[in-house]
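Example for tutorial group B:
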């Protein structure tokens, strides 16, 4: 990379604080020669027996219809679509997965709308969860590294992949484990979008909704060659690169931050292991004509001892005399 891209301060903090999550789109899979949406739809149409459907290819390739709109017209060919996903998105070779391996090393926590299993091939030990499995999603909180397939996976029941409009509505418009998990991720972690075009209307609608809830107080980052395309999204801060071949060098710079010595980090170190008990002073009323203040002193002292504190940790003072009270 000719010009080292500056890592924004908040992104540095997220890296150092192990609070970064990578959101991966189809752009990261381009070097793997996986089909894009246009190719998927064209090839599925070729596999159907109905020659009349080939007019849909013309509508797609002319730009008159979008790929997802054409897929709606192929809903009666689900097997052809799911078979295509399984046959064409399943990766068996670990070659060309250098960036995937580095992203796992950088964050360990990946969320993706891709169907391919690249991250699982890049790291055999990474945990995977799909949007339709409440059990797998519930387990994510205990995993140090995982890939969360928001739209399904070619290796985990491809028939559950999010393909049709009904699938998108069920995922994004209904309350479910995947939806709730994503909302938690949005508010609790810093997201870095890589290879993501932000054209999915369902994703945009969800993010706009969450941004409204949090009053534009939460921001995430997107690595892009066209930063102006994202100016309309208040919650996104573009990080400009000149070409997608700069993704890996950018990740390398992020890894340098992750591996910085503790005394060179941006985020102040948290003091760990300080088990010192707090010094506590109890003030209790002691009117001149009262004969019960001594009993109150004994009661407080007994409570302190029952909690494992010693007389060195606590002090009792009478408001009348300022005299120290102790266990007798």
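The residue assignment follows.
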């Amino acid at each position: 990379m000719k010009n080292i891209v500056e890592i924004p301060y908040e992104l540095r903090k997220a890296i150092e604080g192990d609070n970064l999550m990578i959101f991966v789109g189809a752009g990261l899979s381009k070097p793997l020669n996986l089909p894009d949406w246009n190719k998927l739809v064209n090839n599925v149409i070729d596999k159907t027996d109905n020659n009349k459907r080939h007019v849909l290819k013309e509508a797609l390739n002319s730009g008159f219809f979008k790929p997802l709109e054409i897929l709606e017209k192929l809903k009666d060919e689900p097997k052809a679509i799911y078979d295509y996903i399984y046959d064409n998105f399943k990766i068996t070779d670990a070659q060309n997965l250098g960036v995937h391996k580095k992203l796992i090393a950088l964050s360990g926590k990946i969320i993706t709308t891709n169907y391919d299993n690249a991250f699982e091939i890049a790291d055999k030990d990474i945990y995977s969860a799909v949007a339709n499995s409440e059990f797998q999603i519930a387990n994510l909180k205990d995993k140090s590294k995982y890939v969360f397939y928001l739209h399904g996976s070619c290796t985990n029941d491809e028939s559950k992949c999010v393909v049709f409009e009904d699938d998108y509505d069920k995922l994004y418009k209904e309350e479910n484990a995947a939806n709730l998990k994503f909302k938690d991720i949005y508010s609790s972690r810093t997201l870095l979008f890589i290879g993501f075009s932000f054209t999915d209307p369902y994703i945009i609608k969800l993010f706009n909704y969450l941004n409204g809830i949090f009053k534009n107080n939460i921001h995430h980052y997107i690595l892009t060659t066209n930063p102006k395309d994202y100016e309309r999204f208040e919650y996104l801060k573009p990080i400009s690169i000149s070409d997608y071949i700069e993704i890996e060098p950018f990740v390398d710079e992020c890894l340098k931050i992750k591996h910085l010595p503790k005394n060179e980090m941006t985020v102040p170190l948290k003091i760990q292991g300080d088990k010192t008990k707090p010094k506590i002073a109890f003030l209790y009323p002691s009117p001149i004509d009262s004969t019960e203040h001594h009993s109150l002193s004994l009661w407080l002292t007994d409570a302190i001892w029952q909690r494992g504190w010693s007389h060195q940790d606590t002090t009792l003072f009478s408001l009348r005399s300022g005299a120290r009270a102790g266990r007798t």
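The chain has 13 helices and ten strands. Compare this with the pattern of hydrophobic and polar residues in the output above.
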